[in-house]
Amino acid sequence: MTITKLLIANRGEIACRVIKTAKRMGMATVAVYSDADKEALHVRMADEAVHIGASPVKDSYLRIDRIIAACKQTGAEAVHPGYGFLSENAPFAAALEQEGIIFVGPPPKAIEAMGDKITSKKLAAEAGVSTVPGHMGLIEDAEHAVKIARSVGYPVMIKASAGGGGKGMRIAWNDAEAREGFERSKSEAASSFGDDHIFIEKFVTEPRHIEIQLIADAHGNVFYLHERECSIQRRNQKVIEEAPSPFLDEATRKAMGEQAVALARAVGYRSAGTVEFIVDRDKKFYFLEMNTRLQVEHPVTELITGLDLVELMLRVANGEQLPLNQSQVQRHGWAIESRLYAEDPYRNFLPSTGRLTRYRPPEESAGDDLVVRNDTGVFEGGEISTFYDPMIAKLCIWAPTRLAAIDAMGLALDSFEVEGVGNNLPFLSTVMEQQRFRDGRLTTGYIAEEFPEGFAGAELNDMHHFDVSAAAALLMARREQRRGGTEAESRWHVQVGDRAETVVLHQKGLESVVDLGWRSEAAHLHWQPGDNLARIDWSGGRHAVLKVNPTTSGFRIRYRGADLTIVVLRPHIAQYLKHMPVKVPPDMSRFLLCPMPGQVVRIDVAEGDVVEDGQTLAVVEAMKMENVLKAEKRARVTKVHVVPGAVLAVDQVMIEFEAA
């Protein structure tokens, strides 16, 4: 059967991504949508759309019967599952097969074998793939988990057998964490996957998360498309990925690729798939899991190989032979992906919901020295709901070298406008500027190690401080020009936090020479009052893009991960700043505030209880992840404002305390 009409059993950016390739290949496309996604971008892009149920995934995107009914209603011969939802669900693939509908993915038996992490590790070991020490059998309860953890040796990783996306996964360093990790992982696994089986394995210290992309057809061809480095994670969820890895040498790359291919052959695999490895500091690698689907981070592989993985999946599903072999797989340049999430990095990356009041990605482009790609499933005015993953977009950059790709990513992130929901743009920008990241010294503990107290915004180096101070003066001078004033030379007092500068501007036609005393540079400002972005072309060939919002006495400027309120005044007015009173924020330390929009799973304290530092107070679920809220000091509970099952807004008061 040749596929002429394709149904995409997914939503968001991956549904849009699949639709683009399917249309380019001449296929008609069918979207499915829930109540919450009635106006979604993937619905608008598809040729047809079918409503499949209410907003919760169990009532829509996880309903196999409704997906099949949509295929029959529209005449779709094939289904692409994207990732998440039913993408690694063997019964779904089998049900499609029984109905004569093509599943764009591997055979049900391969999904079943690799989808269970316990079974997959046993098969991997039999196929000669290096595996991590651990316990793959049934774990009876929390005390049994502690006994196993002790035998394996702390630290250990507690994981859902049917898990993925970081859900149902905890690291335990001691008995107490093993008990709590087992309970939380088991609960999350049941909620997210309908399967609460848990296993425990050794946690590799200083680990890197490196994965091998595979493609296989039904004619016996299996080969790998090099690797991706996915070490920068938070809550075991990838945030920044790149290809190739800055750590691997050719021998290790080849060995990992060949083991991945051996595993794929052992399970009769076809279509796109990924074998994930943990790699230690000595380049010893251990099998982690196999994802029997397209990965979120697949664009970086596409950018370095020039291959369209969705197209290859569709050709394999059509029964075609892959159009190349291992020796023909090329690798050019470097690609980086930044995952833009609706989550607040200033609140420990907790999810954020709301309407995108402004959404303006950088312009996509494809040149010999730079490619800018943005995979997205949202639009300005759309809503980020509590029902689904909080991903907004995947910003991808390709350049000839790693540092060129990093620099281009920094500029693109500065140019990305997102308003209305908390988002991790400042964090992504900050990482691009860190020397450790630029040196490629990565581990899966990167975020915890680099931000041990949480993310509080970037600290500007001298060059970036020059950029924002100069920009603030240039912007104020441009505002003054609009009011009718033009000066060949002007002086400005610029206050950035505790650091004050006197900035002198010399106007020379369209350019201005900016002098801070310790550095002077010519600049061409591209900005008019009312613009949200200001671009500065510096004489040395540098470029800066800053997000700009006017304030009463200056500007709010966001640049390279820093969010700054900058005072810009004439020097004779600035002398009175020292007399201005400082506003003191209210003391909220006696309240437990809900840190994210979510639902209360459990309250562990009652009025009158005395709690100790580190004691669990409550568990709140958001975006299918359970978040444990703990006491920060000894105190007495005076009032509990919420009950299990309550749906809370961010900063809603949950519990009140007094000194104990």
Q: What share of the residues does DSSP label as strand, in percent? A: 25-35%
Which term fits the overall shape? globular
**Average pLDDT level:** 93
User: What proportion of the residues is helical, as a percent range?
Assistant: 25-40%
Cross-sheet strand order for the largest sheet: 14-13-10-11-12-15-23-21-20
Ends: how far apart?
Answer: 73 Å
From the 3D coordinates, which CATH architecture of one domain would you assign? 2-Layer Sandwich
Q: List the quaternary state of the chains.
A: single chain
Write down how many β-strands occur, each being a DSSP E stretch of 2 or more residues.
40
Low-confidence stretches: none
Tally of separate helices: 17
How does this model look, in words?
This protein is 27% helix and 34% strand. The strands form 9 sheets. Strands 14-13-10-11-12-15-23-21-20 form a 9-stranded antiparallel sheet, with helices on both faces. Helix 4 runs antiparallel to helix 5, helix 7 crosses helix 8 and helix 12 runs antiparallel to helix 13. It contains 17 helices and 40 strands. Strand 13 and strand 14 form a beta hairpin.
State the gist of this model.
By secondary structure, this protein is α+β, with helices and mostly antiparallel strands.
What secondary-structure arrangement, pairings included, does this model have?
Layout: E1 5-8, H1 12-24, E2 28-34, H2 41-45, E3 48-53, H3 64-74, E4 78-80, H4 90-98, E5 102-103, H5 108-115, H6 117-126, E6 134-135, H7 142-152, E7 156-164, E8 167-172, H8 175-193, E9 198-202, E10 208-216, E11 222-234, E12 237-243, H9 250-266, E13 271-279, E14 285-291, H10 298-305, H11 309-317, E15 334-341, E16 343-344, E17 350-351, E18 354-355, E19 358-360, E20 365-366, E21 371-376, E22 383-384, E23 391-399, H12 402-415, E24 417-419, H13 425-433, H14 435-438, H15 446-450, H16 462-482, E25 489-496, E26 499-508, E27 511-515, E28 520-526, E29 533-538, E30 543-551, E31 554-559, E32 562-569, H17 571-574, E33 591-593, E34 598-603, E35 610-611, E36 616-622, E37 625-630, E38 635-640, E39 647-648, E40 653-658
Helix pairs in contact: 4-5, 7-8, 12-13
